[in-house]
């Protein structure tokens, strides 16, 4: 039956059928290895966040210093990520994945037994560099292993893991720390990584690398200097007052100059072996998808940063409760991802699903942007779950449709650029929103405080009521008056902070509105079987 089908198939289908024959049913087992590998990387990006205060106490450092445990991982990840396609071609995708997973496991074990901050930062740098290829290269591996009519289904399962994992990671990290100890957030990577290594090593038949030839050392140097400097500025700029700090100013100049130089050198005709083939961005679908993935990373990771702040500062949640509150939206995200995959498999255009996702995200951000200090949990949960519906519709369809028009040899580079866009979007989102919330809080507080003048009858009545309440509890009049002013000042600050968080959510919604023209660049028919056929 299979031989008969192969004879009837057009020439373009012969290669996918060979791949199907080479892997058979084991391609689904191999998919599990790819998913586990990708989840390792995204999980360790955010699982550490609720653990940092505890870790700071154990390692004997300040809260500001412990932030480098997260920064170092992202820094190494961002620098190596654009080079992953070149490294995979040079050493072979199978070998590169196995070595990367092995290094990630070793670095995780070392993180778990680190005794001081310097050791932890070093091991996290290694972990971040090793984890860089685990998303983009596993996506490229899926496109290589699965026949065209199954690419959307397989990538839907894969994308489910990389999208749900960061949403549930804070809950998992808090639970592990409360019930065991923080080193176990690293130790759980060991059995997971070993299983992924076994599955990939046992079942994947990736091509060998092409050793020899030129190495773009100038490109590597410019890339490391540019992205490394920019990442440092994004992570440390807020607490160091941005360009007012001499180090931040110097690194900003270096980052911009090196990045511009890198782009020009990669596109130069004199560069015969570019480390990053930026020419793949000539594909309009990939270029549009890259911008959308940047905004999606901004919205996903920025939202994960904003909501716990709002929940704990305004709604009065504890840290554990705010983490658990993210669990249900994570389940909604998982369900949406599965549904999106089914719809794309049934030939619903990926671009249409992405458009719907952008509109849903705009709606959810509008709702989150109109929360008040008296909002209840159900209000917040509905808006948060709606945002996960939007992300689920958007990210999967963009991931699949964005690379649908690329040739097989360009798939690794396209996937790497999408992964870089998502990671940079998340890093930039957290840094930008942190600064934005701080500045808008000051702006709104100044505006609200200006309204508390002595002739304002509403403010005077509120202060009089508070003074009377404190006086009734036994305070003398002077202490009651001072206490009332302190309470009133706290309420003004809380309201200003609420308004700033609202502004930040609306800003995210505006950014998603701006992605509509980029989504229009994607091929409408890139979904389901059509998307797969594009390969």
Describe the structure.
- This protein is mostly helical and 535 residues long.
- It has four domains: 13-206, MFS general substrate transporter like domains (Growth Hormone, Chain: A, Up-down Bundle), CATH 1.20.1250.20; 216-272; 283-438 and 505-535, Growth Hormone, Chain: A (Up-down Bundle), CATH 1.20.1250.20; 443-498, no CATH class.
- The protein is 78% helix and 0% strand.
- The chain is built from 25 helices and no strands.
- It has helices at residues 2-8, 14-23, 26-46, 52-59, 63-66, 68-80, 84-91, 93-112, 117-131, 133-145, 148-179, 184-187, 189-203, 217-236, 246-267, 284-313, 319-325, 327-345, 350-368, 377-402, 411-450, 457-472, 477-514, 516-520, 528-533.
- The protein is globular and about 85 Å long.
- Residues 1-21 and 526-535 have low confidence and may be disordered.
The CATH class designation of the largest domain is Mainly Alpha
Mean of pLDDT: 81
Total of DSSP H or I helical runs spanning 4+ residues: 25
Taking the sheet with the most strands, its summary is:
none
Q: Helix coverage percent of residues?
A: over 70%
* Coarse shape: globular
What is the CATH topology descriptor of the largest domain?
Growth Hormone, Chain: A
Q: Give the CA-CA distance, first to last residue.
A: 25 Å
| Element-level helix/strand string | HHHHHHHHHHHHHHHHHHHHHHHHH
Please state the structural category: mainly alpha
* Percentage of residues in DSSP E strands: under 5%
